Amino acid sequence: MELYEQKSRWKIYLSIAAVAIMIISGLYSNYLTNKLKEGERKKAETFALAVKNLMREDTNNLDEVVLEQEIVFNTKIPVLLVNETGQISESNNFPEGANLEKELEIIKKSGVLPIEGSGYHRYIYYKQSRLLTLLQYFPIIQMLLLLGFIGVGYLAFSSARKSEQNRVWVGMAKETAHQLGTPISAIIAWLEHLKLTKGDDAETMDVVYELENDVDRLNLIADRFSKIGSEPKLEKININEELEKCRVYMEKRAPRKVVFEFPGEETPDFHGKVNPPLFAWVIENLLRNSLDAMGGVGQISAQIFEEGDFVNIDISDTGKGIPSKDLKTVFQPGFTTKKRGWGLGLSLAKRIIESYHLGKIFVKKSILNEGTTFTIKLPKA
User: Fold this and answer.
1) Which CATH code of 3.30.1340, 3.30.450, 1.10.260, 1.10.3470 fits the domain covering 2-128?
2) Rounded to an integer, what distance in angstroms lies between the CA atom of residue 90 and that of residue 82?
C-alpha cells in the first residue's frame, strides 16, 4: 500500500514540475515576443516617419539620402502603404506575386493598428515578421516536444519495468514449481511405503487416502506454477462445470455462515477456450479474497452470460468492499489490504486472464461495507 502511495506522490511531483517548466518557458517566451513586437512597431513607426518626411517639399538632399536609407534598411517587416480610398499604393518586403489585397485583410484581422502617414500614403500597415510569428508558436512547439519526451520516456520506463516484472514472475513461478517437486516425490514414496506396510490398517489407510488428495492438490499447484511464462494449452470447456468444481472445493473450506449461490443445472451451458488449471486458479483466488473480505459471514454469488464475442463471469461478495482510491492499483503486484499477504493473487489472476487467455478482468463495482463484483471476460469457444 505504502509503495503505491509513494508512486502516486512521485507522479504528482513530476507532473507539477513539468507544468512549472512549461509555465516558466511560456512566460519567458511571451516576454521575448512582446519585446520583439514592440521593436517591430517602433521600426514600422520609424519607416512611416521616413516616408512622411521624404514627401515633404522642404526636404534637402542630405535628408533624402538618410530617409531613403531608413526605408531601404527595412528588409524584415512587410509593409503596405494605403491611400485615403483604401487602395494599396506601395508595398515592401512581400514576396513577388503575393496577393496584397488578401495580405491587407489578414493584417486588419490580426488586430495590428495602422500607422498614420501623410499625403498619398495615408495609412501604413505592417505585418509581423516571420521571426516574430515563429517565436509566438515556440511555446506551443516546446510544450508538444516536452510532452512527447515525457510520453516516450514514460513508455520506455514502463516497458522496461513490465519486462523486468515478467522475468521475475516467470523465474519465481518456475523455481517454486521446481522446489515443490522434490518434497512431493518424497511424500508419494512414503505413502507407497505405508500402503505396503500398513495396508491392512483401515485407520492408516484413511489417513493415506486424505494425504493422497493433498498430494494431488500440491501437484496441481506445482503444475500451475510451471505454466507461468509458457504458452498454455487452451481447450474448449464448459465454464459452468469449471465454476461448479471451484465452488465445491472452496465451499468445503469456507465457514458455515458463508452461502454460495452459483449457476444451477437449469442455466444454459457456456463454452470458452481456457486452460482449466489456470482458470481454476483465478476463480479460487477471487473466492479466497471474497472469504477474507466477508470475515466468515455473507454470500458469494456467480453469474455467467454472453456479451458479444465474450463469455462474462461475475463473481460477487457481500464483503467490506474496495476503496475507490485503490481500484487502479488492486491488480498491481504487492497490493494487499491483509496484514498477512504478499499481494500477488490478483496480479497473477490478471496475468493469466489477459496474457494467456486474451480476456479481461476488472472490478465491475465495489461499494464500501456492501460488497464487490469482479468480472472476467473470456473469448467464446
Assistant:
1) 3.30.450
2) 7
For residues 180 and 218, the answer to whether their CB atoms sit within 8 Å is yes
| pLDDT tens digits, 180-239 | 887 888 888 888 888 888 888 888 888 888 888 888 888 888 877 777 766 778 889 999
Q: Which of 381, 256, 365 is nearest to 314 (CA)?
A: 365
Q: pLDDT for 267-283, tens place per residue?
A: 888 999 898 888 998 99
Please check the confidence at residue 304 and state whether its pLDDT lies above 90.
yes
* CB burial string 248-283: b at 16+ within 10 A, e below: eebeeebeeebebebbeeeeeebbbbbbeebbbbbb
- pLDDT in the model for residue 64: 45
Comparing CA positions, the residue from 236, 212, 228, 90 lying closest to residue 170 is: 228
Q: Span 247-261, mean pLDDT?
A: 91
Name the residue ranges covered by the structural domains of the chain. Answer: 2-128, 134-227, 235-379
As a whole number of angstroms, the distance between CA 78 and CA 74 comes to 9
Walk across the sheet containing 88-92 and list its strands. Answer: 88-92, 79-82, 121-126, 115-118
What cell was used for 153? 520516456
Mean pLDDT of 333-343: 63
Q: Specify the 3-state DSSP secondary structure of 364.
A: strand
Report which of residues 24 and 76 the model is more confident about: 24
For residue 295, the SS3 value is: coil
DSSP labels, 325-351: GGTTTTTSTT---SSS--S-HHHHHHI
**Fold topology of 235-379:** Heat Shock Protein 90 (3.30.565)
Q: Which of 327, 321, 315 is nearest to 370 (CA)?
A: 321
- Residue pair 103/94 in contact (Cβ under 8 Å)? The answer is yes
Between 291 and 33, whose confidence is greater?
291
pLDDT digits over 42-70, tens only?
776 776 666 666 555 554 443 444 444 44
Strand (E) positions, the chain?
79-82, 88-92, 115-118, 121-126, 235-238, 258-261, 271-274, 298-307, 310-317, 360-367, 371-379
